[in-house]
């Protein structure tokens, strides 16, 4: 079985998370391809999917959303795990957990609405790296006003644990028809 770990992002955080997930899955014996979700990806060669995108305005980037909408090239719906990369952990402490909960709920509704019948095995929200130049002026003001901080907010132990749980499901036969 070959697993596609597909990603869409603008500044490298999502790609880095996808690469880490791919490494973890490969470490568990899975055949993995980590690729950007552009028009060149043919979903027909994969039996399982771990897909992720950076989040802007509570939506995935168009290339990732389009990949999910187009389907997976098979009559059946293969096993799919979804992850999003946002900036909740960059916010100041008082807003951090509130923003993460609110964003997770909205993203779950958004993602499952992309394609009727899509039943992801897991949907996760991770924080990425936030640099001043990644934000528009209003975003920089908001971050400052909320006591937030720039930097790499990726929680590697959390990402590793999630990737390991995906690997366990794959090994247990979650991806077999």
UniProtKB/TrEMBL annotation:
- Please provide an example of a Pfam family that matches this protein in its UniProt record: Flavodoxin_5
Database matches in InterPro entries:
Flavodoxin_dom, Flavoprotein-like_sf
In this chain the Flavodoxin domain maps to 5-141
Report the protein name in the record. Answer: Flavodoxin domain-containing protein
Organism source for this protein?
Streptomyces thermolineatus
Lineage runs:
Bacteria, Bacillati, Actinomycetota, Actinomycetes, Kitasatosporales
């Amino acid at each position: 079985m070959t697993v596609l770990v597909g990603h869409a992002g603008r500044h490298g955080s999502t790609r880095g998370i996808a690469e880490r997930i791919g490494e973890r899955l490969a470490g568990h014996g899975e055949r993995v391809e980590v690729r950007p979700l552009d028009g060149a990806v043919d979903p027909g060669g994969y039996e399982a999917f771990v897909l992720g995108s950076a989040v802007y305005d509570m939506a995935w980037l168009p290339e990732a959303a389009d990949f999910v909408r187009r389907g997976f090239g098979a009559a059946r719906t293969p096993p799919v795990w979804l992850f999003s990369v946002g900036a909740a952990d960059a916010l100041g402490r008082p807003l951090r957990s509130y923003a993460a909960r609110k964003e997770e709920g909205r993203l779950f509704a958004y993602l499952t609405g992309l394609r009727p019948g899509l039943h992801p095995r897991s949907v996760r929200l991770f924080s990425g790296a936030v640099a001043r130049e990644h934000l528009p002026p209003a975003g920089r003001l908001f971050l400052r006003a909320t006591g937030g901080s720039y930097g790499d907010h990726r929680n590697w132990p959390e990402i590793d644990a999630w990737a390991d749980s995906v690997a366990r499901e794959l090994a247990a036969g979650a991806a077999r028809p």
